[in-house]
Each structure stands twice: as C-alpha cells, then as structure tokens.
Design goal:
This protein is 81% helix and 0% strand. It starts with 16 loop residues before the first helix and ends with a helix. By secondary structure, it is mostly helical. It is globular, with a radius of gyration of 20 Å. α1 crosses α3 and α9 runs antiparallel to α15.
Length: 412
C-alpha cells in the first residue's frame, strides 16, 4: 500500500519527527478518552436512563465492534486520501462523537439510541486511530523502535488516568448531573490535536513502498496466530478495564469518587508503568518471554479480583491486572512487525482488528455474565479464559519459530 511522502509542501520546515511523535501520543490519549469516558458514566446511565448492565455491555461491544469494522476497511480509504487527512478525520470524528455523547441522549426520544449513535461516531475516530497511529510512529526515523512503540501505547494509559482523575474532579465541582459538560469538554483534546496533525511531517513505513497485501498475510499461519494473540490481549485488558469502575462501586461497595480512582485509574496507572518499564527493557528476542511472565501474573490478578473475600485484595487484583496486560498489545505489534517486515499498514490494521475484536468480546462477556451470576465480581472470573488463550497462542508461535529455525539449519 502506498505511503505518504516524507514531507508535504504544506509541512512547515521547523516541524520534524518529534512533533509527529508528540501528536501521535496525543492521538492515543484521544483513543483513551473515547474508550474510557463512557464506562465512568455506566452507573449514571443505569440510574438516570434505566439502561441495564447487559445493554451497557452492548454499548462497549458496539464501540469496539465499529472500531473492528473500521480496522477492516480503513487501509483502502487511507490509500485514497493519505495519512495526513486520515489522522485529522479520525480526531474530528472523535470530537464530534464526544459532543454527541453529552447531547444526543437528551435530544433523541430513546436515550439509549442517542448513546449508541454517539458511540458509533466516537468509534469511527477510535478505529482510524488504531490503524493509523502505530504505523505513523513506527515509520518515524527513531533508533529504538520497540521502546517508542511501547511508549506510544503508554500514552493510552496516561490518557486513561487523565480521564478518570479530571472527570472525578469535574463530578466534584459540577455534581454527577454535570456529566454532559464533561463529555463536551473532553472533545477539545482531539479537536486541537487535529490542527497540529495537519502540519506535522509523515514518513514512509516501507521505503520502496512494496508492502504485503491482505492475501499475502493470510497465507501465513504465524499471521493468524498473531491475530489470535491480539484478540486475547484486547479481551484480557478491556474485560477488567471497562468494568473496573462499576466493580469497585457495585462489587466492592465503594462510592463513586473512590471507585473511579481506585478502579480504572489504578488499572491505567499500573498498565502505563508496565509499558514504560517493560518497553525500556524489551527487545525482539525477549518480548515473548516477558509476555508469558506477564500472562501468568494476569491469571493471578483475575483470580484475586473475582474471588478475594476482602475489598482491598480485590483492588490489588485490579492493579496487578493493569500491570500484567501492559506489554501484551505493544508486544504483539513488536513481534508482528519483526516477523513481517513488509507488512506495512495492512499488517497493523489487521492486528488492530483482532485487538478490537477482543476489546468488544471481553467486556460484553463480563457484562452478560454479571446479569446471570448476580454481580460483577463473580463475572470477572470468566475473564480468566482470555489470558489462558494468549498463553497457548504464544507457545504455539514459539514452536513455529523453532521449527522454521530447524528447517533453515537443515537447508529446507
């Protein structure tokens, strides 16, 4: 797929790849806003509009399902209009969706329909960002690609923390009834970043432009394993993250301010730390081992959150889960980029599709299980299946790599 040129005539000469990186980091902050503002409002929507927990889980599934669809069709659209226009459109859609989240439930006859429409628009922006930001950063002329990829994904965590902390401050100042104002206020972030993204330089991901097509990737067993890893990574992360606030409040009996700070904020903080610390130490050669160790910790974290008899130990489980999943998503991107060096934007788009499928699946499974099992806490025990799936996938990927190495040694 053709890449955008290294420098556009409209790019001011004083801007370089550092500005592209900075704008990309804010792009992941934008994605954090799109994905995590809604869950802070779940109980408010439940009490104000009578939306059931299953329907709230469906809202999450709609968000990530739309992102999944965008992941699938975006590469051709990006090919037509280029990275610059696509990045700007993604941010404008995110801003419009956030404004709609705070207005449409009051404008439409069915508040739930308003939430769904707003989430679809937000998801259009979020899906484009998922496809675009990682290859834009990967293409920048940096030395340690693995570190910058992990650092990029850490900004999703810092954005998540900012959403929780600043929204909590907003609830204290405005009261819970002021939540529509918060939605509109958060829309300012993607709106301003869209302006910067129009002027920063963009770089080629594959120098000669000869990237792999979908059908080229589909022929490789390793590619399908990577998609499965992304699905399990997304589900492992979001099954806990999306329900952390509601779990801290309804499951552990905390009031909203404490629930938000000790639920999703704790999760995001530990995940961000893992991505910075792990990214600084990760290489293509040790990333699989680091991910396996993290997944064992993830299993323990879900067990603590789901079955601990003490609230404080359940919160420890939430924090450990954030730390354990931190390296999974960027780590899979690192493995995929190293395995398919000509994968280009198509590779990143399809891996993001797998990740978003997991992001839709995990919270929806927990939400449906909560209604059946009578609580969010027990439902989190179902989330154990996702890190277990990822462990199996990494083991299979490692066996395939060793088999290829033995084949090359024999001259096959």
């Amino acid at each position: 797929m053709p890449e955008v040129p290294r420098r556009s005539p409209r790019t001011p000469t004083r801007l370089d790849h550092r500005h592209t990186l900075a704008a990309s980091y804010v792009g992941y902050v934008t994605q954090a806003i799109v994905n995590n503002l809604g869950p802070l409002l779940f109980l408010i929507w439940h009490e104000s509009f009578g939306v059931s927990f299953s329907a709230l889980g469906a809202v999450v599934a709609i968000n990530f399902g739309m992102q999944l669809l965008v992941d699938l069709v975006a590469p051709k659209a990006i090919d037509a209009v280029g990275y610059r226009t696509s990045m700007v459109v993604a941010h404008v859609a995110a801003a419009l969706g956030l404004v709609g989240m705070g207005t449409l439930p009051f404008v439409l006859a069915d508040p739930f329909a308003g939430l769904v429409v707003a989430m679809l628009v937000c998801a259009l922006g979020g899906g484009l960002l998922e496809v675009l930001v990682s290859p834009v950063v990967e293409a920048c002329p940096t030395v340690n690609k693995a570190f910058h990829m992990s650092l990029l994904h850490s900004f999703y965590c810092w954005g998540h923390i900012a959403v929780v902390v600043l929204s909590t401050v907003g609830f204290v100042v405005l009261g819970q009834a002021g939540w529509p104002v918060l939605c509109v206020a958060w829309a300012v972030v993607p709106a301003l970043n869209a302006v910067l993204l129009w002027f920063v330089p963009y770089y080629r991901l594959v120098e000669d432009g000869r990237t792999m097509r979908y059908r080229d990737l589909f022929r490789h067993r390793a590619f399908w394993l990577l998609v499965g890893l992304m699905l399990a990574a997304g589900a492992s992360e979001q099954a806990m993250s999306q329900w952390a606030s509601a779990f801290a409040q309804a499951g552990l009996g905390l009031e909203k301010t404490a629930g938000d700070l000790l639920g999703p904020a704790l999760f995001a903080l530990t995940m961000g730390i893992a991505r910075v610390v792990g990214g600084a130490r990760a290489t293509v050669h040790n990333i699989r081992t680091l991910m396996l160790a993290s997944l064992v910790l993830c299993l323990a974290a879900y067990l603590l959150a789901a079955f601990s008899p003490w609230a404080w130990l359940g919160l420890v489980g939430v924090g450990l889960c954030g730390f354990s999943v931190g390296i999974l998503w960027p780590g899979t991107f690192t493995i995929g980029s190293a395995r398919f060096r000509r994968g280009g934007t198509a590779l990143f788009a399809l891996l993001a599709l797998g990740g978003d499928a997991g992001c839709a699946l995990g919270p929806a499974v927990v939400g449906a299980s909560a209604d059946r099992l009578g609580g969010i806490g027990p439902a989190l025990g179902i989330g154990l299946v996702f890190p277990a799936m990822m462990i199996a996938g990494l083991i299979a990927l490692g066996r395939g790599r060793r088999a290829r190495s033995r084949g090359r040694a024999r001259g096959d």
